[in-house]
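Continuing the batch. This is chain 6 of the set; chains 1 through 5 are on the previous pages. Same settings as before, nothing changed between runs. Recording input and output for traceability.
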Amino acid sequence: MTSRLQSDLAATLDRRRLLGALALGAGGAMLAACGTRAGAQALACPATPTETKGPFPADGTNGRPRPINVLNLDGVIRRDIRPSFAGLEGRAEGAALELELALVGTADCAPARAGAIYLWQNDATGDYSLYDRTDVNYLRGLQPAEGGRVRFTSVVPGCYGGRYPHCHLEVFAGVEAAMRGEAPLLVSQLAFPEAECRALYQGDARYGDSLRNLDRLPIERDFVFADSDAEGRARQTIVLKGDPQRGFAGSATVVLG
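Output for chain 6:
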């Protein structure tokens, strides 16, 4: 059976091959100059880099025996993504997280006038709904941007073998665009801060082997975040405030290029 890490690596390799092919075509030099993170530094707000969506998006692009798509299900537009929905039962356990994402543009850092974010993540034990666990579809949800901000109620994810703690997101032109299957404006990932995750994993048995996995793979070695410098990784890391007992408030900025 293919591991989560092997699936993630395969998806990333395919994306990098595609980008390499594009760079060799007409206008490749311009694409290479503008698409790098070094080039993005000249912008007022450096764009959030494109990252692999991974093997578990449930956005209609993969799945067996047929593509899995939660974006066309009733109830997917929701703030609280901890419960399962659309007829499935089960609720994700873990430390509570109120996550707020600011959606802005690169030119002037102004809040986006429209847009929507589809967010998904693994649970405390490292499992992804609909793939590792086919009986649940929790920790997946779509929200429109209101005043350039999108809010989700979730849990802090666990750290599974081969990956640093993270969540996935796709930015769409709007909720309707996402539900119609239009291509996203951005596919990326956000990291969680090591200190807060470490403290949580040490004291909460629901997180299983997360602490051991975190010890083995700091963010500097994670295959998604390792190609950025410390400043770039900081921009892709969620700021967490709170504690395991009361829960956490998280915030990050997603910048559309």
